[in-house]
Request: fold
Amino acid sequence: MIERLRAQGIHNEKVLAAMAAVPRHQFVEKGLAFSAYDDSALPIGFQQTISQPLIVARMIEILCDGRELGRTLEVGAGCGYQAAVLSLLASEVFAVERLKPLLDRARENLRPLRLPNLRLKCADGTLGLSEAAPFDTIIVSAGGLEVPPTLKNQLAPEGRLLIPVGDADQRLLLIERQGGVFKEVWNDLPVRFVPLLTGTE
Reply:
């Protein structure tokens, strides 16, 4: 998987090392473990998916470019895989998931790894996590037509937010807070994420 990611253009060695250190097969259903390291998204139940390795690596690499991740919020913890990768690169990771049964599964998946700087919470990700804000980094693993203003407002100065935006055709939008201004940069990599929904279940 790591050599394939290199061939696909992932160059950040810290990101590659973190991807190599997390056993991806532990985060998918046993019947799909043989496909865990393929370059494809896989179902994890509850109409959700674990993103393909290239997308996970690319998103984190964009956020790491020229900086440390610092205090990080992940919106859409899913099965916990990306949160585990982030925890090896960030000082602290707060991962929120709106589906409590899925969050419970993520806790089980993550327990053997004993990651001391990772906290999980069942919460509406569109509202961020005000009690832990501000964040140096926010990564959103679900797509919508617009960026929730609350997430932008929970960015620390010089903080970065990466989110898929669009309907059928989604692209990654990087937002960097520069004082009171939010600078936006679009990435051309086409992506397809599950919808960013409100509320909890």
